[in-house]
Write a structure and sequence with these properties.
By secondary structure, this protein is an all-alpha fold. Helix content is about 80%, strand content about 0%.
């Protein structure tokens, strides 16, 4: 018999925590606006909205680059999928990452399930692994860029205050060290995927691999083989990391510069903007709100203000940036509506909620 009671409880719990995250995000954004409402109002009134066109175009281009990156990683495993299909699935994943309780992981789960309908039997695990590899490549690029930005911006970060609350020098130093440790640890953990053969001789690992293979039709061995394939294709692997730094993470700083140009802000340095965006992306990984909204805003604004920007301009620019993020994630829902397989996606979502 199916335990419908526990299934309903799990669904209620997911919805509860999703609503809680939405509440946290809304409360933080409201707090940010309330602290400098007049300055933000004036910022929106004086903003030259023509600058939203290049900002939106560049933001959309960065999403296309992410889809192209995943497509290249899929092709390495000889999985047949067109670039357009990869783009459509990526856009749907952005949408579901924002609107379903699972967050970014939930979006990836839907992406995996939809990919499974497009891959032949015997290749489904490899298809899912390509999504994990895409995450790993993106994480390495983000952690590396953030680490360099933090090291170069240490004096700037020592002037940082969080939401106008004073921080002691020791807390700031501790925060800088913590961010660097997170970045280095993230890079090390990501690269460890390609060193799995070194761990296989360990008795515990060998037993786990054997158990997974028995339960999943050799899934552990197949995934290890897939990781080996990527390691034997360094041009694709490290090329994807390199282009992710330039055309994903640093490109988001260009988006921010467009918003600042619309506000008429020209005095802020490029390093300040890059550091703000990268630390905001790191804060966005925290599972406290959908898409990191709210937490990301606090960090970005704090860095910009520490870099000499007026609080009203910093908050206006970040709220516009958050609007772009939400808008494009919701735009991904269009690809769900026009996708012929949307009924299958609905069924996947229904099963995930049980």
């Amino acid at each position: 018999m199916v335990d419908t009671g526990s299934g309903v409880f799990r669904h209620i719990r997911k919805v509860f925590f999703f609503v809680l995250k939405l509440t946290i995000a809304a409360a933080v954004v409201w707090f940010i606006a309330a602290q400098n409402f007049q300055g933000i109002k004036e910022g929106f009134a004086s903003f030259r909205y023509i600058w939203l066109i290049p900002a939106a175009a560049i933001y959309f281009f960065h999403m296309v680059v992410c889809a192209f990156r995943w497509h290249r990683l899929i092709r390495v495993l000889d999985i047949r999928m067109s670039l357009f299909e990869a783009f459509v699935l990526s856009m749907q994943a952005y949408f579901f990452s924002l609107v379903i309780p699972g967050g970014a992981i939930g979006g990836d789960l839907v992406k995996i399930a939809m990919l499974n309908t497009r891959t032949p039997p015997g290749s489904k695990a490899e298809g899912a692994f390509s999504i994990l590899m895409d995450r790993i490549v993106g994480m390495i690029a983000m952690f590396a860029t953030a680490a360099v930005a933090v090291i170069c911006s240490a004096p700037l970060l020592m002037r940082m205050e969080i939401a106008e609350w004073p921080l002691r020098p020791g807390m700031k130093i501790g925060g800088i060290v913590l961010v660097l440790l997170v970045c280095l640890g993230g890079i090390a953990a990501s690269l460890a995927v390609f060193c799995h053969r070194r761990f296989f001789p360990l008795p515990v690992i060998r037993q786990v691999v054997a158990w997974l293979d028995r339960r999943g039709r050799g899934i552990a061995t197949r995934l290890a083989a897939a990781a080996d394939v990527y390691w034997r294709n360094p041009k694709v692997l490290f090329g994807s990391i390199f282009w992710s730094v330039l055309l994903v993470h640093l490109l988001l700083a260009v988006v921010f510069f467009c918003l600042l140009a619309g506000l008429g802000v020209t005095a802020v340095s490029g390093l300040t903007v890059v550091t703000a965006v990268m630390l905001g992306n790191l804060a966005g990984l925290l599972p406290f709100s959908p898409g990191g909204i709210g937490i990301r805003d606090i960090i970005v604004i704090a860095v910009l203000v520490a870099g000499g920007m007026a609080a009203g301009d910093a908050k206006t620019a970040q709220l516009l940036y958050t609007g772009l993020l939400i808008g494009f994630n919701l735009f991904g829902g269009v690809f769900f509506l026009i996708c012929p397989g949307r009924r299958r996606t609905v069924e996947i979502l229904r099963q995930a909620g049980e």
